[in-house]
TrEMBL record:
Function: Cell wall formation. Catalyzes the addition of glutamate to the nucleotide precursor UDP-N-acetylmuramoyl-L-alanine (UMA).
Record keywords: ATP-binding, Cell cycle, Cell division, Cell shape, Cell wall biogenesis/degradation, Cytoplasm, Ligase, Nucleotide-binding, Peptidoglycan synthesis
Localisation: Cytoplasm
Similarity comment text for this entry: Belongs to the MurCDEF family.
Residues that hold ATP according to the record: G109, T110, N111, G112, K113, T114, T115
Positions of the Mur ligase central domain: 107-280
Organism domain of life: Bacteria
Domain Mur ligase C-terminal: 302-410
GO molecular function, one term: UDP-N-acetylmuramoylalanine-D-glutamate ligase activity
Catalytic activity: UDP-N-acetyl-alpha-D-muramoyl-L-alanine + D-glutamate + ATP = UDP-N-acetyl-alpha-D-muramoyl-L-alanyl-D-glutamate + ADP + phosphate + H(+)
Major place of residence: cytoplasm
Protein known as: UDP-N-acetylmuramoylalanine--D-glutamate ligase
Organism taxonomic ancestry: Bacteria, Bacillati, Bacillota, Erysipelotrichia, Erysipelotrichales
InterPro entries found in the cross-reference section: Mur-like_cat_sf, Mur_ligase_C, Mur_ligase_C_dom_sf, Mur_ligase_cen, MurD
Length: 434
């Protein structure tokens, strides 16, 4: 009976523990916090080391380790196992090994992942049994335990943290939708971050597809030695496999959908829909179902999400914009009169990319840990400590025709647990105002 250690007892960690226990492994689960489910897990035959990481964990010989993707490799406990050469995986890799009848459409990239994954899932649902997992939806191990003997199509969003723990994972179709600086608080360098994204296709079979964004020079630079069929796509060119022409999206000579049927706005969302449609086509979804799903799809929560209007002022929640690339996409969706709420935890990424929107931003109200940095980006900038104070300041300056946009360009960890909490609180504050 192989002994395995799981570091991190969030939902994905517990799911991995249960799946591995089901398949005969001796499982130990450790977490820095005390677990409410401690007795329940012990009753299931899982050893629990909570409230810290005891020394004996380092003294045992583990067959392999499953690490929560959010825990950096530089954390002392993890670093010690890296130095010992113990294999370290993420729960997606573990699930892949047991759910052998799942077919994967795998999505990674800096921005747009959640929209593409959600839209792909809606397309796959129209075909039949489909699941959504990874960074959104359920932990893949939870679904593997429930459906491992069944055939399922899976829309799978993957962060680079998850890809770092992959060894065998092989998708039917995959994409790196774009690349931009991010996660310098986790990765040793930008080069390491970009290279980690390319692990998505490393085990792809020859008949699998990898969608390559030829508009992105970083992808062209890093996407090398691709072992499967390459589908080049572009929003600017038509001499590629997947492209726009005459207001429609085409895969070679097959028309996938008409752009004017989309409810989601902005060129970047056209690109997101293009990617999802092509992936769905490779996974066997009919053109009619692709078009119906694309036409009915509305925005993802916390991604340029319209909240409402008061006195001619529109409010948008783009809390998922945790880097400048995502914030730039939101700012490009409005021609002028933007009152921008930005700021949060400092990930070590410069904000210079946002200077090109200075003429569109009527006022930036910056808050949080990085608030002072935005004074060098926008001509008109006011700093406030909290998001609530920033919203109050924005409303005081707003006039009919303005847009109040929360698009922080930073992660949320200075004042919130995650971007979802930040977005929910922002929406609640706006609705109270409305």
């Amino acid at each position: 009976m192989a002994e395995v250690l799981i570091i991190g007892a969030a939902r994905s960690g517990k799911a991995a523990a249960r799946l591995l226990k089901k398949h005969g492994h001796a499982v130990t689960l450790t977490d820095s916090r005390k677990l409410e489910e401690r007795e329940e897990l012990i009753a299931e035959g899982i050893t629990v080391a909570d409230g810290g990481h005891p020394q004996w964990l380092l003294e045992k010989s583990w067959a392999f380790i499953v690490k929560n993707p959010g825990i950096p490799y530089r954390v002392p406990l993890v670093k010690a196992f890296v130095e010992k050469g113990v294999p370290i995986y993420t729960e997606v890799e573990i699930a892949y090994r047991y759910a052998r009848h799942f077919r994967y459409g795998a999505i990674t990239g800096t921005n747009g992942k959640t929209t593409i994954t959600s839209l792909l899932y809606e397309m796959l649902r129209r075909k039949g049994d489909a699941l959504v997992a990874g960074n959104i939806g359920y932990p893949l191990c939870e679904l593997a335990e429930r459906y491992e003997d069944e055939e399922k199509d899976v829309a799978l969003e993957l962060s680079n943290f998850q890809l770092l723990g992959m060894e065998q994972f092989s998708p039917l179709v995959s994409v790196v939708c774009n690349l931009a600086p991010d996660h310098l608080d986790y990765m040793d360098s930008l080069e390491d971050y970009y290279a980690s994204k390319m692990r998505i296709y490393q085990n792809a079979a020859p008949d699998a597809w990898f969608l390559r964004n030829v508009d992105d020079p970083l992808i062209l630079q890093y996407a090398q030695d691709i072992p499967c069929q390459i589908i080049d796509f572009s929003m600017k060119r038509s001499d590629v496999d997947l492209y726009c022409r005459d207001g429609k999206v085409w895969l070679h000579d097959t028309m996938l959908f008409s752009i004017d049927t989309l409810k989601i706005v902005g060129d970047y969302n056209v690109c997101n829909a293009m990617i999802a449609a092509c992936m769905a086509y490779r996974m066997g979804v009919s053109i009619a179902d692709i078009q119906a799903a694309a036409a009915s799809f509305t925005s993802v929560e916390h991604r340029l999400e319209y909240i409402g209007e008061a006195n001619g002022v529109r409010f948008y929640n783009d809390s998922k914009a945790t880097n400048t690339h995502a914030a730039a996409a939101a700012l490009s969706s409005f021609a002028s009169n933007i009152i921008l709420l930005a700021g949060g935890h400092d990930k070590g990424i410069p904000f210079d990319d946002l200077k090109r929107f200075d003429d569109r931003v009527k006022l930036c109200v910056a808050f949080g840990e990085t608030r002072e940095k935005f004074t060098d980006v926008f001509t008109n900038c006011i700093c406030r400590l909290t998001m609530k104070e920033a919203l109050e300041e924005a409303c005081a300056h707003a006039r009919p025709g303005d847009v109040i946009l929360l698009s922080p360009a930073c992660s949320s960890f200075d004042q919130f647990h995650n971007y979802e909490e930040r977005g929910r609180i922002f929406k609640q504050m706006v609705r109270e105002l409305l």
